Amino acid sequence: MSQKEEELTYEVAIEKATASLTRFPLIPVRGIPLMSYIAQNWDSIWAFRPDPSDLLIATYPKAGTTWTQEIVDLLFHNGDTEACKRAPTPVRSPFLEIFSPPPIPSGLELLEKMDPPRIIKTHLPFQLVPPGFWENKCKAIYVARNAKDNMVSYFHFDGMNKTQPEPGPWEGYIHKFMRGELSWGSWYDHVKGYWVERERRNILYIFYEDMKENPRREVERIMRYLDLSLSDEVVSRIVEFTSFKNMKENPMANYSCIPKSVFDQSVSPFMRKGEVGDWTNHFTAEQSKMFDDDYEKQMKGANIPFRTQI
């Protein structure tokens, strides 16, 4: 089957299944709340055996995942933008743990059809990543975004994503975020888990804020980590093609392939703002103080250099 045919098959499958989609409840897996379809298929996810050449891109949700997937795909294709329009992001770079009602293919099913090296996306915290990744010494890129902006983006995403629990009002969402009661659990534990393991597991740990501040520098960091050497001209093309504006307009990256009954982009675009510091438009002074006090307790001793402004 050609890439184009796979793309059409993926979109048709989603269209067929949307009638049965609902906001799935969260079920804990080893203490981490995951959507019920993921939890019910956990054994097969945990047993996944990657090829040593596979690359894992891990993030807490809404921390720059799609951006990084696009950068990596372009690096692997020497900046060929047409090659990277061959299919939507979730087909080019499958979501490891995602399971939905049939006939939507799971991440595992998409991966089975692909030859290594594959770009694999996950939101799983470090302790839930299938051990095969570390046993096979796969490379992994972890992208971390400051907690306040990450929470704002996740709040809007949970509003438009009709498969995740209803976010409720902003005032309550802050507390759910602080308590780790959202899909994929605690942001605090997530960013700390990969940070602690980054050297032992050869994880490239990058920050969303650094990517916004100097995208070329971070693209070059990723390139070197992947043992690639591309010309300055190609790197410049990748930086331009993966700008927020260009990706927002790119139907292969902006998730417009997902029907409105699943991702209602009239509620909030999948690619909403892509800014650092948008949290100031959402937090009251009182909420910010409460959040900061809790943040200091939860991140005590972590020493991860997050920035809420650039």
Automatic annotation (TrEMBL):
Query: What broad class of enzyme is this?
Result: transferase
Record-linked Pfam families: Sulfotransfer_1
Which terms does the UniProt entry file under GO BP?
A: catecholamine metabolic process; xenobiotic metabolic process
User: Which EC number(s) does UniProt give?
Assistant: 2.8.2.-
Q: Does the keyword Transferase apply?
A: yes
Query: GO molecular function: any one?
Result: estrone sulfotransferase activity
Q: Which Gene3D superfamilies match?
A: P-loop containing nucleotide triphosphate hydrolases
Intracellular or extracellular location(s): Cytoplasm
Report the GO terms under cellular component.
Answer: cytoplasm
Q: Which residues form the Sulfotransferase domain?
A: 52-301
Grouped into one coarse class, the protein's main location is cytoplasm
Sorted keywords for this record are: Catecholamine metabolism, Cytoplasm, Transferase
Family of the protein in this entry:
Belongs to the sulfotransferase 1 family.
Identify this protein by name: Sulfotransferase
